[in-house]
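Propose amino acids for all 310 sites.
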């Protein structure tokens, strides 16, 4: 085999690997996304089956991934949310998307995705079942991307392959550059050619020091999503971090439920919902499971909650 044919063989192998990676990376993103969403839905499964509507609303509100959820029975009857005169504020998200969700559900035999808005800040996901419950959800795109450890752009590219161009202009230029470099290497000698193709990158810069927050004797690590207090270490959710950050930024101030709902949920307080009380209760157990330390989140009855700095 001549040097020219050997060079072309290696270029062909590289080209096939490059194209295969571009084609199948999107499918992997979709599988990861659906697997994670299904895991989150399985947590709600028992509550849905037992028709415990209030508990289901609390769980949905405390799950960062979901903005709204709808469940249909096998006969097509809407099981949740129930249509009533006293509509919950969370249900308006579903009511605005009801026809779209029903159409999306009817268009698939298993699962389907759709963009909720032009900026793809949220997504519609439907899981259809012939003999069991069918579920549709409005999902936060950024939360899903973080959960499966990818970027928003890569997630959208995997979920909507029609938007993905297999070989972009940049990729064509890259392949052309490789061919030119290989030809130069064949002309001046393989050693020089391979050094050009496989030149090592400069060492990566050292990572920046981790920034943390202090809440009295407790340290909050936003990057690792941890809280540390003496020998205690516990994981926290995105909503936990938002609420704790709100307390840290406004020590000794009584924060109303409206303020905390805006910080943790991004929408106004719902009088009929106890999601905040439930979440504060869970957060206190993480901060002090044995109830032997100073309370960092105090209840100010009739007003809200406070972080006493001293």
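Proposal:
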């Amino acid at each position: 085999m001549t040097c020219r044919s050997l060079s072309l063989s290696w270029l062909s192998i590289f080209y096939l690997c490059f194209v295969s990676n571009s084609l199948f990376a999107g499918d992997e993103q979709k599988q990861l996304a659906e697997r994670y969403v299904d895991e989150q839905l399985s947590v709600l499964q028992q509550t849905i089956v037992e028709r415990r509507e209030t508990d289901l609303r609390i769980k949905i509100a405390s799950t960062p991934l979901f903005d709204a959820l709808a469940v249909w029975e096998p006969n097509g009857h809407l099981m949740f949310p129930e249509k009533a005169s006293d509509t919950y504020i969370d249900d308006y998200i579903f009511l605005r998307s009801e026809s779209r969700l029903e159409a999306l559900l009817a268009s698939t035999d298993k699962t389907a995705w759709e963009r909720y808005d032009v900026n793809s800040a949220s997504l519609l996901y439907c899981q259809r079942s012939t003999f069991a419950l069918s579920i549709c959800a409005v999902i936060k795109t950024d939360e899903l991307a973080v959960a499966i450890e990818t970027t928003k752009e890569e997630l959208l590219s995997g979920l909507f392959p029609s938007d993905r161009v297999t070989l972009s202009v940049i990729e064509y230029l890259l392949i052309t550059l490789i061919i030119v470099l290989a030809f130069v290497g064949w002309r001046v000698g393989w050693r020089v050619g391979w050094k050009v193709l496989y030149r090592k990158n400069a060492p990566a810069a050292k990572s920046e020091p981790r920034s943390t927050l202090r809440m009295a004797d407790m340290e909050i690590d936003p990057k690792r999503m941890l809280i540390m207090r003496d020998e205690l270490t516990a994981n926290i959710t995105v909503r936990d971090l938002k609420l704790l950050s709100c307390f840290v930024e406004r020590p000794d101030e009584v924060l109303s439920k409206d303020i905390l709902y805006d910080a943790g949920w991004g929408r106004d307080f719902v009088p009929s919902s106890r999601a905040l009380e439930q979440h504060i209760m869970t957060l206190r157990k993480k901060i002090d499971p044995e109830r032997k330390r100073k309370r960092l989140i105090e209840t100010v009855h009739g007003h809200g909650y406070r972080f006493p700095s001293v």
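The mean pLDDT is 78. The domain at 24-163 is CATH 3.30.450 (Beta-Lactamase).
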